[in-house]
Amino acid sequence: MQVREYDDGDWTQVWTIIHDVVREAATFPFDPDMTEQQARAVWIEAPPGLTAVAAEDGQVLGTAKMGPNRSGPGAHVSTASFMVAAGARGRGVGDALCRFALDWARGHGYAGMQFNAVAESNTTAVRLYQRHGFEILGTVPRSFAHPTRGRVGLHLMYLEF
Predict the structure, then answer these.
(1) Cβ partners under 8 Å of residue 79, min gap 6
(2) Looking at the whole model, is its pTM more than 0.85?
(3) Which of 14, 95, 107, 160 lies 20 to 30 Å from 132, alpha-carbon distance?
């Protein structure tokens, strides 16, 4: 598996992943009825950000986007988001994407990385981020409407470099 910068030729496979993950409505606070055009506008980062894919044998297994968490006085802190295709979960794709994003952020001089809204029910992601050194700074209770668990909290997570 190789993690590399997104190329426009990846879009069809990236859109399939985004569509499926967003429709599940279990991990991302995106509208489950998000259109392809809306997804492209949200997911494909312009500089100084970057969109990446994890691919193997021409198959996109996951995607990530990264960049500054805020503009202006907050631009020294990065953020990132990750989506993994359902059939590729449990194979280290999320871990590889997270490592790539952290290396990218460190290499671009960011002071840390902040995740603004990690569903507490997404225990796989929470554990992954904690293995990489992220801490849960706080949780907004009942702020994410999970399709089967009802309202669950959203974690704010941070890793200082």
Answers:
(1) 66, 67, 68, 69, 113, 114, 115, 116
(2) yes
(3) 14
Determine the length of the chain: 161
Question: If you search the block for the tokens 């979960």, which residue do you land on?
Answer: 89
**In whole angstroms, what separates CA 127 from the centre of its chain?**
14
- For 84-143, the pLDDT digits (tens) are 999 999 999 999 999 999 999 999 999 999 999 999 999 999 999 999 999 999 999 999
The structure tokens 């790539």 sit at 100
Rounded to the nearest 10 degrees, the angle between the axes of helix 123-131 and helix 93-107 is 50
Place of tokens 């950000």: 49
Question: Which domains does the chain carry?
Answer: 2-160 (3.40.630.30)
Q: Name the 3-class secondary structure at 79.
A: strand
Contacts of 63 (CB under 8 A, 6+ apart): 6, 10, 14, 17, 18, 43, 51, 52, 53, 54, 82, 83, 97
